[in-house]
Design a protein that fits this description.
CATH topology of the largest domain in chain A: Tetracycline Repressor, domain 2
Largest interface: A-B, 58 and 58 residues
Structural class of chain A: mainly alpha
Largest sheet of chain A: none
Number of helices of chain A: 9
Strand content of chain A: under 5%
Mean pLDDT of chain A: 90
Oligomer: homodimer
DNA sequence: GCCTGAGTTAAACAACTGTTTAAGTTGTGG
DNA sequence: CCACAACTTAAACAGTTGTTTAACTCAGGC
């Protein structure tokens, strides 16, 4: 984050309204298709406030992505740490990630859209995050799984697999809500259990 | 597709160049962040040719998405049909989908980004596709899995789960290629086998 | 009350956007 | 050769874009 981004002594309400409006609009229309005047209107601020608080439209995007990715990394570290066998740790991770995604649906959709993008202004943050996630998954999941269960899944397979599988419901929810109501319901413990079951079976059971 | 979209008696090379350039640029930068002049430059055509061939920029997007989604639906129908048990059919589907995604990496990334978008001009196609996929998965996978394996996974969970899990490697490849070289290598049979293994274990094995 | 910093605004700006239009070119068939 | 359809182009257009700037307002501290 640039040093010249303005932060008041008190947490600014306008700033938070911009963030909320940005998450909403960016997730539904995409970053580039959302104009700043539309965003400002929804946030009830003047269009210049985005530059004032975030330096630029892209600065706003970076902040949203950084916040989301670092939250995800933090929860992975918290849930995967410890000396227990991998299974309870993986259970904890799955439940925590699903809850995190549920609570940050818009940010998740935005992040998923931005992951494969190659914008030079943004890519470094993503690379830093990806490296840290890969390291965490390798140390905390891939190696213990290999040790305890004899399955060798490299981190560049396991990382994307976990994140995508756990994201799936949320990614498709906006379109599936037009087909059936269930996908938009808040994720419940039965669904968490079901997805946990599928993933634990898939990752920790013996050769098929 | 609008009737006034121009199709020549001979397959137009310019048209195909536009499609190729669009897939490339839309997948890397997103639809809205890709300007038509940039696209025309890469395709070596005049900017008016997009409207000439596709009616509009959005017409081009619709065509790319329709083509991708219908290909995916077709392969699902082909691989999942028949009276065999669900396991060999699911195996076939997984291998075919991974190959399809490998061969249409750019279109996949574009489609994944567009899935949660709510653009009124495009959403109907996605809904039609989603309904058809759900019906296919329900009939061909959910019900047989419940029958043969006693696992009840609703189509609105299974559909997104399969598609996302099989997409994962490709979604993260552009960013992970900066971390390690493997994610960008063409998908090999060992990786297909590994992902098949994980999914079959996860979906078809007994309660954990 | 004054000063200062933070927040806010309206206007301006240069650049870009997708689309349209009219003219021109090319290829094919009679 | 001519007619016609398909393809191609350059220019124009109205609208939109993100950013900048200067002026103003507000709040807090001295």
């Amino acid at each position: 984050m640039k040093e010249d981004v303005n932060l008041g002594k008190r947490e600014s309400e306008s700033r938070q309204r911009i963030i909320d409006a940005a998450l909403h609009l960016f997730s539904k229309k995409g970053f580039s298709a959302t104009g700043l005047r539309e965003l400002a209107r929804e946030a009830d601020v003047n269009v210049a406030m985005v530059s004032y608080f975030f330096g630029s439209k892209k600065g706003l995007l970076k902040e949203l992505l950084d916040h989301f990715f670092s939250g995800y990394l933090d929860l992975a570290r918290e849930t995967l740490s410890g000396d227990e066998p991998v299974e309870p740790r993986l259970r904890r991770f799955i439940a925590a990630a699903l809850t995190y995604f549920e609570n940050h649906r818009d940010a998740l959709l935005l992040a998923l859209a931005e992951i494969p993008r190659d914008d030079p202004d943004i890519i470094e943050h993503k690379i830093i995050w990806a490296k840290q996630m890969m390291a965490e998954f390798d140390q905390r999941l891939c190696q213990p799984i290999a040790h305890e269960h004899g399955r060798n899944i490299p981190p560049h397979i396991l990382g994307p697999l976990l994140t995508s599988t756990l994201s799936a419901r949320f990614l498709f929810a906006p379109i599936l809500q037009q087909v059936a109501p269930e996908p938009c319901a808040p994720i419940d413990s039965a669904t968490i259990e079901q997805l946990t079951d599928v993933l634990l079976h898939g990752l920790l059971r013996d050769e098929f």
